[in-house]
## 1
Amino acid sequence: MSDPQTLPQAADIDAIRDRLDGEIAAISDLRALDDLRVAALGKKGEISLMMRSLGKMSVDEKKVMGPALNGLKSDVAALVEARKTALEDAALDAALASETMDMSLPVGRKTGTLHPVPQVMEEMAVIFSDMGFSVAEGPDIEDDFHNFTALNFPPGHPARDMHDTFFLEDGEKVLRTHTSPVQIRIMMSEKPPLRIIAPGRTYRSDSDQTHTPMFHQVEGLVIGEDIHMGHLKGCLMDFVSAFFETDVDVRFRPHHFPFTEPSAEMDVRYERDGAAIKIGTGESWMEILGCGMVHPNVLRACNLDPDVYQGFAFGMGVDRLAMLKYGMPDLRDMFAGDPRWLGHYGFSPLVQASLESGLS
Ligand code: DAH
């Protein structure tokens, strides 16, 4: 025979349910509710201990008490859950009522600024989207094929060494040394005609006043059936004048890139005015981008027939263009995260670059 003193009786169950029901209803915060849940239903909770005593009961007692205890357990769990939902809803209502925002208040510039790099990328996107380009992206971690081979850098080619590549430990992957691999990804995944720019981070093992191991580029690619060097020149001349917001004199100088033929670098006319640099006037020339007609080998690597399709491509350093346009002296400051620098050179996050209202 079991001991009626220590083992729960069916009559106890209703009393416990009523008591817990009252206690749960009286709780007004979530932490206290959870404490009650643990005290009743937790491993060493009141109801769990009662369920453990089932093992000591006779078969007949078990038949009554087993279902009764299970019922109690699920009832209490449901009561806790319902109370929890009610308390959470009440907390949300209270938050919504108290955390109102006065939309008529003026917005200050004290909260933070947009870094010049995203600002300049945005300006470029605005200019090129006006010319019908869309924005494409590719991964920062690239494979050899997209970063080099498909861009007509054969294995062992000396131009690979010029890129001071960061190799990943697996020996297969690299941190992309330029945004040109996005050209390959787009040509392999989309059908011409193509007109894209690809802004993004690029990496080379190099660090001094004009180089940082991470920097930013914007790549451009146009592929079609009658594209020639005149399109390239017109497009880039329009771009620089729009970007510097003044008429800019440019010159194209022959150069070499493995992925373009012919290749050129574009220089802009400038002069020094004390420490500042003035773009558009003077007798000096500064290189700002590389460009050229897409090499037939690159088209072939992307399964495009060079007898049908031609195109041009270009690539430029965003950080350098930001420095030129906004007059920052040292490239390394760009990524030092100094709030004084950001406060001085940063842009209002609330003003969108646009061709109508001004880029900057
Ligand atoms: N990828 C080159 C670099 O990082 C820049 C470049 C030059 C891109 C010429 C181009 C191009 O698409 O046609 O130095």
## 2
Amino acid sequence: MERELVELKTRLQEISDLNSASAVLSWDQATYMPPGGAAARSRQMATLSQLSQEKFTDAAVGHLLDALEKQIDALPEDDAALVRATRRNYDRLVKVPPQLVAKITNHSAMAYQTWTQARPANDFAAVAPYLEKSVAYAQEVADCFPGYDHIADPLIDWSDYGMKAATVKALFADLRAQLVPLVEAVTAQESADTSCLHQFFPQDKQRAFGEKIIRQFGYDFDRGRQDLTHHPFATKFSIGDVRITTRFDEHNLGDGLFSTLHESGHAMYEQGVDPGYEGTPLDGGTSAGVHESQSRTWENLVGRSRAFWTHYYPELQATFPEQLNTVSLDTFYRAVNSVKRSLIRVDADQLTYDLHVMIRFDLELALLEGSLSIQDLPEAWHARYEADLGVHAPSDIDGVLQDVHWYGGLVGGAFQGYTLGNIMSAAFYDRALADHPTIPDEIGQGEFGTLHGWLKENIYQYGSRYTAPELIERVLGAPLTIDPYIAYLKSKFGELYAL
Ligand code: ZN
């Protein structure tokens, strides 16, 4: 068995090397590559991805997994987890027939291309036939994994393994029931004055300020760096090289600052994984939801808290004296936590964001179940936005055509992680506070070692050794509920808006 394990790990390391090389090319494409490099770069990345796929789907990998699974109970815990994670990834690649994959690849390119033109033209009719196919292909892919409880389950598994549609639906229904009235109560009050954030803030100073904070959070610049891009992201080439990217708007201080804090949370998770997992499927965050819980912890629970700004606001004022010296801490704190009913998910505030996500999740389920037709989708979208947020998009541009997710070839499984992440972030944070009640005071001193240490010990180090449901059970000692998240929102926004 030792021989099989060594051979499997050797193969996995090579696959990981190819994927990391691809990630470097992709990072470069999004940061420094001149426009002239575009065509060749796409080809180079496709070549690497094909090589990696060929290596992974090699029948020999399947035989190694078969052999190791027969004796999985005799394997050390880490190795058993490695075999299980590898099996999941392997099955995702081999269970969907190559002809179907080829059809979806072709379809994806056309669906996306059509969407890029249909959105500005407000032409839902143009993308409707593609969307219809995307739903049909998603159903076909799901059927390659028989035995599911809900047709969305296999699609959810790709990003949030083990989080069943039924579980997510129940959590979201609870959350929606609490959030809708809370948003109503908050938006009935006078909205916060956000003008202090919309002055001129030079980019170099914004950047230096953000980097100073994330260094203090514990993001390790000896094993990472930050560069500029259009759409911020975090990426990993190895546990020793986890990078983030950001963008700055010189007329919107919150944009670059909070996206830097957000991406540093994703990156610290990856930097904190046990180095012994390097080069295996265990060496990264375990699910989209858990990953998002880590970015949201640092962006929102820490970075939008009063304690945090009590410490950092004087430093921010010293950095931008002309802009902020006459703005009080209270005004600034309200501005970075302002709430308003809006149409666009990516611009939504902390309180309304999950409503946007849950609308999409529910519509996806209805499409996959066949209880909602593509033809009725735009109206269903408007109806939910009116019911949940009290707004009606003037056109489909800011309605059903808004997000790229549904126009990338398949429908399903792409949204739930955002809100699961918010729910988890509060549940984990509650646990950390129970273990270390001094954490909020430390944040008020600009000290983050206790929180960062707790996250490393309880979440980061395990990488993908535990699935999300297993990790939740380990950390919380119980399944996930919305209670800590709702308590947090009610306490924070209740105080801000004197509810
Ligand atoms: Zn994120």
